[in-house]
């Protein structure tokens, strides 16, 4: 294992500490328990939005804390759910009296710990709603999840729900928007290489020099099949085909196309993937109205990519375009 | 070699093609010869800024084309200089009558080809000035360069010169600002792993499982020394120590601290590096007034990091803060 770390035990606190200094114009960090929160939290009368989950997927979630997106992020240990304690603390820190939305990726540990935290916060008089994200079409029901997994589509849920909260929507409306985004986004990914969790010290799985894993999870969970390496265009056809089989588009509909790097993928490869994905959508008469290409939901240094497609309508497009100011996503201010 | 590509010969054109579709609100691409240009170029009366160099360092340079930064970028083959031809074409495409600045990283091929292109453009009546970037303190004079190499500090030169051009400075003034930034920025990097150039198919060098290369170049050129892996804090002390030895700071001076990932480095590691670098600067009484953390000048999938420090003054800080709207750097609009 070669990593730019000190003690594996301190990876998350040191990274969060550095993040908070680098982005002190936007966020502050609490280190006991660990969470990252907008520096202007709580905002009176605004619905607060909290997300979180295991670390190692950066910039998800702390990179999305700021104006127009999340109010707080709760990073657990690498690839491990945060406990209820920091989730409760983050929820309290962002409660401005209008309630708090939890955006939770669909992993058993995350779901349970956010549920417990929501109950504890409710006992303290904070109204909490929760939306579970489960955009990964690759597999259903596994060792890690009942149902589908939540992956890169989470970024789109967080951005659009964040814009709704920022414009003043109430808790039920923000939760409804988040639910709507989740219902209209699908994702599938591929891994070319595994990654090494610092406290494990070994790759969580192995792929031969000519093998790739189609439908990989963001913790290296198994996907649909392990195949021989193919040209990028063939891989894109597999991933996007699975996405569009699960959520067909009619000609003339608008899509947001997200090509997400897994952390170790060169940017030229992401744009080669994007190019073919955009072509396939155009061939089917789908308008790629908005695009996002980069590392947004990663698996440490894993090489690979996921393709997400969100079916847009005017409301979602307007909320996507609304100003956002976070470490990892910024426009309009 | 496992990469998300089709034919290695088409890596650059396919990636540029995808980039231009994804960011069609900001840029357009020409494919014969290949360059990326602001969609509103040429801007009458504004100094045009062109940069370029071998591909494989993305987002450098095409990711920095847009309002407040570059007017055009010329990507060569992976790790190989573009020929004069596309540089001339890009120079003509951005000439709004106020002249064009070439920002050139200090590699022999880049310098020669940009010089030739400048001569050809001048013969066509375009006033061209050139600034060479040579911020890498690691080595001097090598197989690749006379003098020092140009690395991640290039991003800071491009941003700040771009802001000067956008506010209406004339060619001499924009060139002077670029020269000033180059004179005040220093960088040193480290590699944990090598990268594979697509048309080569093999790593350009090898490192043992416990070895790192201190002072690595962005094409994998040798650095100062190959050592055993150390804790991140010790590596940061080496890199930042070399930078500050070369450009001492007085207590109370302001710095911009750039922690740049080489492409395959997990974001948690970049922030662990940033944290210690910021601590060291604080210990020396230097104020980290601005920060930038992420993948900005990469070497494909290489794992590693570089640390750049720019000595700020009020003028440079104001130009850094000015609005920018590119694929890879955006704020203020």
UniProtKB/TrEMBL annotation, chains A, B:
GO MF terms held by the record: glycerone kinase activity; phosphoenolpyruvate-glycerone phosphotransferase activity
Official protein name in the record: phosphoenolpyruvate--glycerone phosphotransferase
Annotated GO biological process: glycerol catabolic process
Reactions the enzyme catalyzes: dihydroxyacetone + phosphoenolpyruvate = dihydroxyacetone phosphate + pyruvate
Pathway: Polyol metabolism; glycerol degradation
Domain DhaK per the UniProt entry, residue ranges: 7-331
Taxonomic classification: Bacteria, Bacillati, Actinomycetota, Actinomycetes, Micrococcales
Subunit organization: Homodimer. The dihydroxyacetone kinase complex is composed of a homodimer of DhaM, a homodimer of DhaK and the subunit DhaL.
Organism: Microterricola gilva
């Amino acid at each position: 294992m070669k990593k730019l770390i000190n003690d594996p035990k301190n990876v998350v606190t040191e990274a969060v500490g550095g993040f908070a200094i680098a982005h002190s114009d936007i966020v502050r960090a609490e280190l006991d328990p660990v969470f990252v929160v907008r520096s202007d939290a709580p905002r009176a009368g605004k619905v607060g939005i909290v997300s979180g989950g295991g670390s190692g997927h950066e910039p998800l979630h702390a990179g999305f804390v700021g104006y127009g997106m999340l109010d707080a992020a709760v990073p657990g240990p690498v690839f491990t759910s945060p406990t209820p304690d920091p989730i409760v603390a983050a929820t309290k820190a962002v409660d401005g009296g209008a309630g708090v939305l939890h955006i939770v990726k669909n992993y058993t540990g995350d779901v349970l710990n956010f549920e417990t935290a929501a109950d504890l916060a409710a006992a303290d008089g904070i109204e909490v709603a929760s939306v579970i994200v489960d955009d990964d079409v690759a597999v259903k029901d596994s060792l890690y999840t009942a149902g589908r997994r939540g992956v890169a589509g989470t970024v789109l849920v967080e951005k659009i729900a964040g814009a709704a909260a920022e414009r003043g929507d109430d808790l039920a409306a923000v939760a409804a928007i988040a639910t709507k985004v989740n219902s209209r986004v699908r994702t599938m990914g591929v891994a070319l290489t595994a990654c090494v969790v610092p406290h494990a010290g070994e790759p969580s799985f192995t792929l031969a020099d000519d093998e790739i894993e189609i439908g990989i999870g963001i913790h290296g969970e198994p996907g649909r099949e392990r195949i021989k390496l193919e040209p990028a265009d063939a891989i894109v056809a597999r991933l996007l085909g699975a996405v569009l089989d699960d959520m067909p588009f009619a000609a003339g509909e608008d899509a947001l196309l997200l090509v997400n790097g897994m952390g170790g993928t060169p940017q030229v490869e992401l744009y080669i993937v994007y190019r073919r994905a955009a072509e396939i959508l155009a061939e089917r008469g789908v308008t790629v109205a908005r695009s996002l290409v980069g590392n947004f939901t990663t698996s440490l240094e894993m090489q690979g990519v996921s393709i997400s497609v969100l079916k847009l309508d005017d409301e979602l497009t307007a909320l996507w375009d609304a100003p956002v100011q976070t470490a990892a996503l910024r426009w309009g201010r």
